[in-house]
Structures are given as structure tokens and as C-alpha cells.
Write a structure and sequence with these properties.
Strand 16, helix 12 and strand 17 form a beta-alpha-beta unit. The protein has a 7-stranded mixed sheet, sandwiched between helices. By secondary structure, it is an alpha/beta fold. The protein is globular, with a radius of gyration of 24 Å. The termini are far apart. The chain has 15 helices and 21 strands. The structure holds nicotinamide-adenine-dinucleotide. The site of nicotinamide-adenine-dinucleotide has 32 residues, from helix 7 and helix 8.
Length: 488
């Protein structure tokens, strides 16, 4: 049985009140670990340690030191990639293939930021000859990093790599449903010779996250999760006007025009919606198909859905695992029922798969609801499960209006062979990422984040590093002379 601890001030330790939480496999509900469950008091210790480390010698590290650190972490991730992928699948239920991909992306993220950090150089500004004016990037300070349960270590990496790379100190709080890979990652960091307090792990629930958001000793909070928690973090951050980054939910349209390559569009409509059983912030669960091909498109999806292999993520033939928690299972089934009650047509799924192996665990069939209209709850709210809702549209204008008519703005996709239309749509869609003739690709070089209620700020790319820095104007007058302006 795996047992996890907190990592505070360079020491592994139990929570002050000895709290633990049973971590359950989504595939069969077996207890797979006992995780340390921290409270606010533990979070305060971690914040104090991070504060001391930031105010101490860590500030003196060079960009070379920090680039080397990130590259070293990438090497350790590569070394333990199989172990980490195994833990991620065990804890989240996603297929081992997906977890292995995540680990590759995580190592790539650390290497990308290592390169970026190493290339950092302040700017010397034009100024009078007796003045040295420089623009410098400096770390923000103590960073509280709060991550969700769907991509536990990937989301953590998007925050940790730029935070450490920019010279900050870190307190990370993973979701208390999925702490295992962040715990193993912390073991890797503990192998390195970092000053105590530079990197701290506090596993626990909402109150630990709230402490990070409220503490005046935290200078920046970066949060990935739902809107409800995001809102309370934003409010709490006003205590010391700390910097915030919010990566929130999405309602992401996948728009298929009649002139698209339909073989690819049908195939990707499934990828968009069913990777990690639809528990992806950018999942393309809102399928919108042009009227003239709508019925044929639904027919082709209906043929593919029963062939999707649902099963344990460790079995090689599995294409889709369970959803992560009982709460999520119940919520998704409730959304499907709400859709049917509002008049959507259930084409496939909408229930636990039959068979003894699916009696325990949080299993759902891949689900297709057709004849959905834009006013229905299922077309408006994030479902976060293996559900495609299919709407029909008659014109480009109608598709655009319906797609943009959402409080969210994370990601969208357009399928067409008409390049002019592709360009028009990708300019007019109000989403942080717009894919054309593809779905889901993201990489460290390109920014990630949402418009509107999908968040504040961006991760990855240069901007993902800049978010963890303060910009300073340093002005040095080498030959000061009295001005004699006042009362001379
Ligand atoms: P959640 O908001 O319930 O929890 C996220 C994290 O915040 C967890 O660590 C949780 O313990 C913590 N938390 C909860 N309440 C808090 C509070 N009041 N103060 C501080 N911390 C608090 O979200 P979840 O259910 O874990 O994740 C699913 C959500 O995350 C979905 O809405 C999904 O779209 C979103 N998400 C977004 C992105 C993105 O890049 N935009 C990526 C992944 C997930």
C-alpha cells in the first residue's frame, strides 16, 4: 500500500493532526493508497518555509543554475516515466498509453522552460549617457500552485517548471483525489540538492487551497480547476492583491462543415470527446454539424460507438477507462438525464456498461445525444465525461453565433476544406485555442488558456514564463547633479 507524506522545508513529514485520506482506484474502487491529508496549519508551515527560502539564498541563483535544475528534473522524469505513468493510470483511470504520452509531454515542458530560462537576458534601454536603464525580469516570490484531478502531473508541470525556472519558491497542492504522481515527482525533487523550502508539497482539500489563496505571504496563486473554486480564489486573492492565474472549465464546440474531410472529422469527433473519458478541459463534447450531412454524420458515429473498448487502463486493448470519481459518475448521468428530459435523443450509451467487471468502479458507456439545441443545459454547461451532444446548424453565421454564445472560451475546432472559411471562423471564434482540421494538439511552445470564464492568464509559451516574473525598471544615475528646482 502506497503511503504519502507532506514535504515541507526539505523534510518529509505527517500532517500536524496525522490526517490521512484513502485513495481509491476508479477502475474497481479498491483502496490503492493512504495519502497525507493536510490542514491549513500544515499549509501555513509550507508557506513560511517557502517564504524563508525565497527571502534567503535562493534569490541568488543564476539563470544557468535554474535551467540546469529544470533539465535535471526532465532527466529524472524520463528515468521514472514508466513508474509515473503507472501511478497516473492507477489513480485517474486513464489508459496507460495516455499516461505515457503525458509523461513525455511533462519532460518536454521542463526542457522547453529550461531553454527559455537560459535565453533570458534583461534589456538595456536607450537613456542619457550618464544613466544605465535596464528592464529586468525578477521572480514574483512564493507561488501557491493548485491542480485538478484530470491531468494531475501535467497540470502541475505547466506551473512548476516556469515557477522554479523564474526563480520563485513553490507550495504545490494537488487534488486530494489524485496526489500520487505529484508525490512521486516530489520524491524526484528531493533527490536534488535544493535549499530547504524551495519546493513544498501539501496534499489536502479545498481548505489547503484556500489557505494558499488567502495568505498574505503568498505572492502568486496559479489554479487549474472549476469555476466555483476559481471564483473563491479570485476573491481571496484581494487580501494582498496577489497575482493570480486561473485555468478554468470549457464548453468547447467542434464544428463540422459539409465540405470537411468526413473520415477525419468523424474519427476526430471521437478523439475530441472520449480521450480520458471526456474529462479534459478542452474536450470537444459540443459537436455542431452542418444540416446537409448531420444525419449521415450521426449515423457514422453511432456505428463506431459500440466498438469503443471500455476497460481497465492497464489492458492493452482498452480505448477508454472509467471516470475518476463516484461524484463525477453521478453528475454525468444526471446531465444525460437532463438532456433527455429536455428533448435530446439518446443514440448510444447513457449508462453503466453491462457485465460483472463494470459493477464496481466508475464506468460509463461512451454516450451520444443527438438533436440537441443550443438552449439545452447539456449544450451550455460543462459535462466533463464521455458524452457527445450533437447540434445541427444551417449556416456559417448560425454556427458562429451558437458557438460563441457561451460564458466559456477555452478551445474550439472547425472542420472544412475551405481555407477562407477556416480563416474567417478561427478569427471570429472567441476561444483561447482554435484548431482547424484537428483536435486537441497542444505543446509547450504555444500558449494555453481561455477567454471569458475559462480563465485569466496563459500557461506554456513565453507568456507562461512571464506570468511568474515581475518586470523591473532599474535606473542608475552614474553622475548625479543637483537640479536646484526647489528653493535654491
Ligand atoms: P476543482 O475546482 O473542484 O478543484 C481543483 C483544485 O482546487 C483541487 O486541488 C481542489 O482541492 C482545489 N480547491 C477546491 N476548492 C478550493 C477553494 N475554495 N480554494 C482553493 N482551492 C480549492 O476542480 P476539479 O474538479 O479538480 O477539476 C475539474 C475542473 O478543472 C473542470 O472544470 C475542468 O474544466 C477544469 N480544468 C481546466 C483546465 C484548463 O487548462 N483550463 C485543465 C484541467 C481542468
Amino acid at each position: 500500500m502506497i503511503q504519502t507524506q507532506l514535504y515541507i522545508d526539505g523534510q518529509w513529514q505527517s500532517p500536524i493532526d496525522q490526517g490521512t485520506r484513502a485513495i481509491v482506484s476508479p477502475a474497481d474502487e479498491a483502496v490503492i493508497a493512504q495519502a497525507a491529508e493536510a490542514t491549513r496549519a500544515d499549509a501555513r508551515l509550507a508557506i513560511a518555509a517557502a517564504r524563508r527560502a525565497f527571502d534567503g539564498p535562493w534569490r541568488q541563483t543564476t539563470i544557468r543554475d535554474r535551467a540546469r535544475l529544470l533539465n535535471k528534473i526532465a532527466e529524472l522524469i524520463d528515468r521514472d516515466a514508466e513508474k509515473l505513468a503507472h501511478l497516473e493510470s492507477l489513480n485517474t483511470g486513464k489508459t496507460l498509453t495516455e499516461s505515457r504520452t503525458d509523461m513525455g509531454d511533462i519532460a518536454a515542458t521542463f526542457r522547453y522552460f529550461a531553454g527559455l530560462v537560459a535565453s533570458e537576458s534583461g534589456a538595456v534601454n536607450e537613456a542619457p549617457h550618464h544613466v544605465i536603464s535596464r528592464t529586468l525580469r525578477e521572480p514574483v516570490g512564493v507561488c501557491g500552485l493548485i491542480t485538478p484531478w484530470n491531468y494531475p502531473l501535467l497540470q502541475a508541470a505547466w506551473k512548476i517548471a516556469p515557477a522554479l525556472g523564474a526563480g520563485n519558491t513553490v507550495v504545490i497542492k494537488p487534488s486530494n483525489l489524485t496526489p500520487l504522481t505529484t508525490h512521486h515527482f516530489t520524491q524526484l525533487v528531493a533527490e536534488l540538492d535544493l535549499p530547504p523550502g524551495v519546493f513544498n508539497l501539501v496534499t489536502g482539500g479545498a481548505e489547503v487551497g484556500a489557505e494558499l489563496a488567502e495568505s498574505v505571504d503568498v505572492d502568486l496563486v496559479s489554479f487549474t480547476g472549476g469555476a466555483f473554486a476559481g471564483e473563491s480564489i479570485m476573491k481571496a486573492a484581494t487580501g494582498n492583491f496577489k497575482r493570480i492565474g486561473l485555468e478554468l472549465g470549457g464548453k468547447n464546440p467542434n464544428i463540422v462543415f459539409a465540405d470537411a474531410d468526413l473520415d477525419a472529422a468523424v474519427d476526430y469527433a471521437l478523439n475530441a470527446a472520449f480521450f480520458h473519458a471526456g474529462q479534459v478541459c478542452s474536450a470537444g463534447s459540443r459537436l455542431m454539424v452542418e444540416d446537409s450531412i448531420y444525419d449521415a454524420f450521426i449515423g457514422r458515429l453511432a456505428e463506431r460507438l459500440p466498438r469503443i473498448v471500455i476497460g481497465n487502463g492497464f489492458h492493452g486493448e482498452t480505448q477508454m477507462g472509467p471516470v475518476q470519481s463516484a461524484q463525477q459518475h453521478e453528475k454525468i448521468l444526471g446531465m444525460v438525464q437532463a438532456g433527455i428530459a429536455e428533448g435530446a435523443r439518446l443514440v448510444h450509451g447513457g449508462k453503466r456498461p453491462p457485465g460483472d467487471v463494470y459493477k464496481r468502479g466508475y464506468w460509463l458507456e461512451p454516450t451520444l445525444l443527438a438533436d440537441v439545441t443550443a438552449e439545452m443545459k447539456i449544450a451550455k454547461e460543462e459535462i466533463f465525461g464521455p458524452v457527445i451532444t450533437a447540434e445541427r446548424f444551417r449556416s456559417e453565421e448560425e454556427a458562429l453565433r451558437a458557438a460563441n454564445d457561451t460564458p466559456y472560451g477555452l478551445a474550439a475546432a472547425v472542420w472544412t476544406r475551405d481555407l477562407d472559411k477556416a480563416n474567417r471562423m478561427s478569427r471570429a471564434l472567441r476561444f483561447g485555442t482554435v484548431w482547424v482540421n484537428d483536435y486537441h494538439p497542444y505543446f509547450p511552445e504555444a500558449p494555453w488558456g481561455g477567454y471569458k470564464a475559462s480563465g485569466i492568464g496563459r500557461e506554456l509559451a513565453r507568456i507562461g514564463l512571464d506570468e511568474y516574473t515581475e518586470l523591473k525598471h532599474s535606473y542608475i544615475n552614474l553622475a548625479p547633479k543637483a537640479m536646484g528646482w526647489f528653493g535654491a
